[in-house]
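Bump. Still looking for Putative amidohydrolase C-alpha cells.
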Amino acid sequence: MGGEPLLLRCRLLLPCAGCSPLRDTIVYAEDGRILYIGDRPPSGAKSGIVIDCPRYGVALPCFYNAHTHVAMTLLRGFHDDSELHEWLARMWFVEKRLTPETIYHASRLAVIEMISTGTCGFIDMYFEPEATAKAAREHGVRARLGPVIMGDVDPYRAVEEARRFARSLEGDPLLGGVINVHSVYAAPLEAVAEGYRAAEELGVPFHIHVSETRREVYEARKKHGKFPVELLESLGALGPRSVLVHAGWIASWELDAVRRARATLVHCPTSNMKLATAGHFPLYEAMEKGINVALGTDGPASNNSLDMLREAKTGLLLQRHSYWDTRVKASHLLEAATRGGARAMGLDRGGAIEPGAPADITVLDLSRPWSLPLRPDNLASAILYAATGGDTLYTIVAGNPVYTPENRARLWSLAEQSAQELNRFLEDIGPGRDPTPPCSPRNACKPG
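Sorry for the wait, here they are.
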C-alpha cells in the first residue's frame, strides 16, 4: 500500500475486544499491515513514523461503522422531535434538492468527525457516492460506497449503475463498492434479487435495511405472505454478502435463516430509540448462534453522532435494559464495533492488533478524570463505559496517521468551513416538506 513504516509504543494495548491487555508494547507496521508486536523494536525495522503514546495513552483496534448515511450531517438537528413520517417528509424535501458539492461538504464534515473519534472505515448508503468518495480519499479513510437504489426505478438499470460504480473503485487500496438497496418496501423486489447477484459477482457487500419497524414487518406479511428476512431468502438475496441493518423486529426463525446464510446483522441502537422504532435487536442470541454482528450509528440526522464509542455504550446499556440482566458484556459491543464491522466491510483480519492484520489502530487518551483510576484489569470497562470518541489522540488507517494532535486544528477548521457551506445551502432552499421519497440512482428513475 506504500507509505512510511510505522512504529507505535504504548504502555497499554488492547489487541482485540476479548483479549487481555498488553503492557509496554511496540507495534511495527509496513505497507499498511502489522508485521510485529513485542516489547522491543524488531530487528531490521526501517526508519519511518514513530508514535510514543503518553502515560495514559491506550492503543486498540479501530472502529468500523457498519451502517451510516454520512452526508446527512447536513440534516443533523433537523426536525429532531418530529414523528417518523413528518421527519421523513422534511428530509425528502431537502434530499431532492441536493447537489454533488453539498454532498461533498456534508461527507467531508462526517469523515473528519469519524477520524476524530477513532473510526477507520464505514459502509455508506446515500446519493452521489462519487462526492463521498472524494472526501474519503482526501482524508485517507476506508469506505464501502455505492448509490442507494430506491423509489420508482428501472431495477435492472439501477443495479447496473451500482455495478458501474463498484467497478470504478476496483484496485483502490481503501475504497470499495457496495450494492445498496434501501429495503424490500422502498425498492422494486427485482432490484433486491438482481442486487444480491451483483454483489456476489463483484465480491462486495449487499447492504439493506431490514425489519426496522413493526409496520414494515406487517406490510411485508400482508403483501407478500412473508416476513422481510423470509422475503429476502425467497428472492435469493440472503447470503454471506448480506449486511442486514436494524433487524429490531426479526423473528426467531429468521435468525436461524441468517445464521445458515452466514449473513451479517447491524445494530443501530441510538437511531432506533430516537426514531421510536421499538422492537428488540437480539444481539446475544445472534452472537451465540455464531452470526457476525456489527455496529452502526445510522445517519447523523437520526443519531446525531458518528461516535462509535458512544454508540457501543448505548448499545450495551439498551441490551441490558431489554434482557433484564447483564449477559451482554462490554466485550460483545467492542467486538461488534471492531471485528464485526471489519467483516461486514469485507476487510480481511480487520478489527484486531496482531501480525498480518491491517494497521488500523486508535489511540485514546484516558488521562481525563472520567476515565481514572486506570488499570489493566479495568481497561475494557474504562474504554466502553467512561471514554468517548472525543478522547481520541490518534487514528491510524493502513499505517497512516490520519488524525493526530498535530493536524487536529487544520482538520477541524476544514470541518467548520464545510458546516458553513451546509448552512448556506439550507438557507437557500428554505423550509418545506415532500411526502414522497427521492428516486435513486437518477439515471435509472422512470419518467414522470
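The domain at 71-345 is CATH 3.20.20.140 (TIM Barrel).

Edit: fixed formatting.
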